[in-house]
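Data card: per-record layout.
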Amino acid sequence: MAFDETDILGGKAVILLNDFGIWQFRMWIAEEKKYERKSLKTKDKTDAIHKAEEMVYEIGYKIKEGKKIFGITVEEAVDLFLAEQQKRVGRTDNGIVIGRYNTQKLHLKHFIGYVGGKLKANEVTKTLLQRYTIDGVETDYVSYRKEENISDITIRNELSTIGMCFSWLAENGHTNILKLQLPYTNKNKYDIDNRLIRRQTFTVDEYNAFTNAFKSYVAVKKNGLNDNEYIDRQIVKTFLLIQANSGCRSGELRQLKWENVEFVKIKEGNKDVILTEVHIDKDTSKVRKGRDIRFVGAEYLIKLKELTKRNEGLIFSRDGVTEIHNSYFCKGFRKIMQLADIDRVRKKQLVPYSLRHFFITNEVQRGISFEQIAMHCGTSVKQVSNTYTQVNKVIMTDIAMSRYNVVQKKYNEEAVLV
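The structure for this 418-residue chain is written out next.
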């Protein structure tokens, strides 16, 4: 309840006392049809009037400059930074090459995916990269990017670009944060990855429980889904199944088009098996190398094609044109995990990228060579070898123990004969 109210500069704004005797500032911003309200943090009226007058002048100057009083979103702020960076392309004085600009644009695209784009730039806290809640789950930027198995060096480069962006935004009055606190990234990537792989890979039972939860996830009556929501969930379901059966990265699948897919019939004994043959375009691959692969699970894509009634454009899209953001598939993954009969602790450890881990781990356990896996998954033999070496050691141990049991049995039989 206000006990006192005083006009400022002929009614352009007012100051008023709150219940605790602290003066407050209020001004109607006609351009944005909102009241600007702030605490003046003083109990002295003369001091409050002086501060309020300064605020009125400052707001008026910002409006004259075309700036928003209530702040722009982080996404809008990033666009301003990129527009400024684009002006530097090709310049001889403090300029950058087009490749550098495109890299910055890509780095900040991932950052927008992290914050969601709706957050106001002037609401950003310095710990944004260290602690942020996405769909009710607290995470940090490193963990968020690790869900797609992004390397530490790439994450560090992204953090550098984000830091540079916010320094520019602070200098130009779009945010009060001069410097974001950066999360920790370990330079020894493979020490981290080996531990993560063991934790973040589905067991067979966990994967079965995960896929069993799809029925509840797409249940129309249970979830009260309309036609569009039902199709959206079928898209998510098919996306995750194809990732588990193909080992493709999520970015490759999100940009996959029907034009790059064929269904191939082959003979397996006395029955026909339909495989999916996919061309991964080099422009959609993380390593910028195209490749052709085959995998099982064609029935999932065939069903999705019938459901969406489309045979061209993006596969995992509502209209074949607009790419669905990765955060939507991550949200679907978490929803399915909630429905799955999996240990509560394990649910926190498993992430969308666990489906790619699951595929590669199964291939290693089947005895497929690292060279073949690397070629199929669009990575290097060294990456597969370093990342999945623990899986390979388990296989080698099983072989060694199998041989040990045979030899030990023979030795025991000979000992009895003696």
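Known properties of this structure: Strands lie at 5-8, 13-17, 23-29, 34-39, 132-134, 137-139, 261-268, 271-280, 291-295. The first strand starts at residue 5 and ends at 8.

See the next section for split statistics.
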